[in-house]
């Protein structure tokens, strides 16, 4: 069967990564979390003195961009791809609150976006890929055969993120997470370079009141329609 490209964009913590991972597994496609790449650049920046408190030294990061190598390797235990930064598994560390709080300004830098988009397009050349992010259907793969734009209310998304982090044993406050979710929405939508917006030909999925099973069925139907199959 001819493989297609699937672009899943949406707000932070809208559950798009979980759905993209599950869909990729179900249909035997490669899954790439593009947000993890911006998070890895942010972790690198934190660890290499690019940040002085909240202040970011963009010039310095630009000089060091060639030292940042991001890759993915399937974790044998979880069967999902883990993110590697310069050969080191950083999957856990890129999900911390510190990285979440600092990633948006990093993702607004044009030279960072150019480098990431080039890598993402390279990864998608062979098709058979599900990639999730903010600009996948608009900038990275404008010709993707299936584009999905995921939304859910900020409160629903903050609650999901809170549950996820507390399940991992992290001490976090719901209010702090909600503020972070809203701030990221604002930055993601209002930035000059590749702002988050629904591609004209994307189909919208509001999953505020959907179970994981309902969402899965919705996605499979969208996939069947896009590929004209009865899979
Ligand atoms: O999906 P996420 O929360 O892991 O994304 C982390 C950050 O990266 C988020 O602030 C938006 C940014 N991002 C982006 O600008 N473009 C993408 N394609 C993916 C993520």
Protein architecture, described:
There is one protein chain. By secondary structure, the chain is α/β, with parallel strands linked by helices. It is 48% helix and 18% strand. The protein has one domain: 3-Layer(aba) Sandwich (Rossmann fold), CATH 3.40.50.300. The chain has nine helices and ten strands. The strands form three sheets. Strands 2-8-1-9-10 form a five-stranded parallel β-sheet. The radius of gyration is 17 Å and the shape is globular. It starts with a strand and ends with a helix. The structure holds 2'-deoxycytidine-5'-monophosphate. Residues 12, 34-35, 38-39, 103-104, 107, 133-136, 184, 188 line the site of 2'-deoxycytidine-5'-monophosphate (DC).
- Strands side by side in the biggest sheet: 2-8-1-9-10
Q: What ligands does this structure carry?
A: 2'-deoxycytidine-5'-monophosphate
Which sheet architecture does the biggest sheet show? 5 strands, parallel
**Oligomeric nature of the chains:** single chain
Q: How far is the N terminus from the C terminus?
A: 11 Å
CATH level-4 homologous superfamily: P-loop containing nucleotide triphosphate hydrolases
Helix content: 40-55%
List keywords for this structure.
about 230 residues; Rossmann fold; five-stranded parallel sheet; three-stranded antiparallel sheet; 9 helices; binds 2'-deoxycytidine-5'-monophosphate
Layout: helices, strands, pairs:
Elements: E1 5-10, H1 16-27, E2 30-33, H2 34-47, E3 51-52, E4 55-56, H3 58-64, E5 70-74, E6 81-85, E7 88-89, H4 97-107, H5 110-123, E8 129-133, H6 136-140, E9 146-151, H7 154-167, H8 174-190, E10 203-206, H9 212-227
Parallel strand pairs: 1-8, 1-9, 2-8, 9-10
Antiparallel strand pairs: 3-4, 5-6, 6-7
Helix pairs in contact: 2-4, 2-5, 4-8, 7-8
